[in-house]
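User: hey, got a sec? need triacylglycerol lipase folded
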Amino acid sequence: MNHKARLLWIFLQCAAALLSFAAGEKSVLKGEDSGLDELSTDSKAFNGVKYNMRKSLDLDQEGCYLQTGKKDCLEECGFNATAKTIFIIHGWTMSGLFESWMHKLVSAVIQRESEANVVVVDWRTMAQQLYPDAVNHTNGVGLDIATMLNWLQDEQQLPLEKVHLIGYSLGAHVAGFAGTFVRGTVGRITGLDPAGPMFEGVEDQKRLSPDDADFVDVLHTYTREALGVSIGIQQPIGDIDIYPNGGDVQPGCALGDVLAVAGNFMEVMKCEHERAVHLFVDSLMNKEHMSFAYQCTGPDRFKKGICLSCRKNRCNNIGYNTRKMRKRRNSKMYLKTRADTPFGGYHYQMKMHVFNRKQADNADPTFHVKLYGAHNDTAQISVDVHDETIGLNLTNTFLVFTEKDIGDILKIRLSWEGNSESWNSVWKNIKKTFWAWNAKPPKPVLEVRRIRVKAGETQKKFTFCAQDPAKTEISPGEAVVFTKCRDGWEVKPRKRLLM
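Assistant: Yep! Here you go:
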C-alpha cells in the first residue's frame, strides 16, 4: 500500500470512528432493549442478514422476521404480495446499533404507505467491521436480498415492479447488487448519498448503476473531497442524480451551526452525509411542500440561475416523489434547500442588463434585492454572483432563492454597494485611495431599466420596469423599485407536466 493509500485509509477509519460513535450515542431502534438491536445470529438470521418487517409505528415492538424458504413467516408477518414492498437498507456501522435516521425513515414510510410491506434489511454483523471488509460484504448481502425476492416471486407471485429498495450510503450499493442478481427487474432503487470510497470511478457492475432497476434515482449530499476521497460518491450513477445545494455544503451543516445545536464535533461530518435521508423523509411527510430539482450540466451554471426550465422533463420532484422519466442515464439535477424541514424553497431566475454609467467603470457592484409578494415579502437578499463580478454593459443572470412562499412577485426593490461600501472590499481599495484620500471621489452611477423574472416552481415569467420611468439610475446606498410591466415575456407559463 503506497503512502497516499495509507493516508486515505487513516482518514476513512477516523471518519468511521466519529460517525459510528455519534450514531451509537443516539441509537433509536431501541438500543439494548429492542429486538431490532440484538446482534445474535439465532434462527431469525439467514447468512447473517435479517429481514425485519415493520407494521407498527412503535419501534419498541420487535416486529416480525421474514426468512427465505419459510412460508409460515409470510402469514405470521401478514405479507401482502399485491401491495408495495419497500426494503430499507442501512450502511456501514461500527457501533452495532441502528442510527437515528432509521427510526425517522421507517416511521415516515409506514405513515405514507400504510398498506405496504416495509422491511428493514439488517446486515449489521457484516457492516460492523472495518470499512474495506464491509465493502467486500455488499455483494453477498445484495445476493441474499435477491434470493429473498426470488423466493417471494415463486411463493407469492410478488410483482417486482412494486418493489422499491432504499439504500443509504453503503446500503445503496447493496441495493444495486440486489437489483443485479434478482430474477427480473426491480421497480425502483433509491440511493441516499451512496458511499464514495472504493466505489468512485469503478465499472457499473461493481456499484449501484442505472441497470439495477427500472428506475434508479440518487440523492448526493456529501461530495466534498478530503485527502482525495469523498464520503458520498461524486459521479452520477442513476437515471436521475440530484445534487441538493450542489451536493457540497448543506445549509445548517456548517461547523458553527452543528456545534451550536449538538455541541459535538463528531456530528459535523454526519450532518451532510445524512442530509440525503432527511430530505427523503421530508418528501414523504410534506406532500404539500415538495422540493423541485432542475436539470443542469453542472452546479456552476445552476448557481447562475440558468437552469430553471421544466420543458421536456427538465425538472422533477425530489425524494420519494421523484417521477420516473423516459430512460436516460445520469441526468444531473440541482436545487437549493432550507437548513431544516420542510426543506423546500423557491427558486427565481433574474435577468437584468446593467448599463455602465457615470464613474462606474470599476464599480465592482454587489446587488441586493427585496421581493414583495402577494403573500409575503422577503428580507433584503444579496445577489449571489457566481463569477464574483457583475458584467457591466451586459445582461446578467442570477439565481435568487427564498425560503418562504411569497406568492406572485408584485414588485422588486434593487440596491447596490460598491467597493467603498463593502467590508469585503476595504483592503482591495486601500492602495487606490491611500494617496488621494483627501479627494472626494465622484459618486458612481449604474443604470438598470428592467428586471426579468422566471419562477422555477410555477414556471411563470414576468418583466418588471422601474416604477418611476425617470429613475433608472442607482448610486450606492440608493434603491430603485420595479413593478410588473408587459415587455415581451409571456405572463402565463407554457403548459407543463403535472408534478
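Quick note: The chain has a mean pLDDT of 83. Let me know if you need anything else on triacylglycerol lipase.
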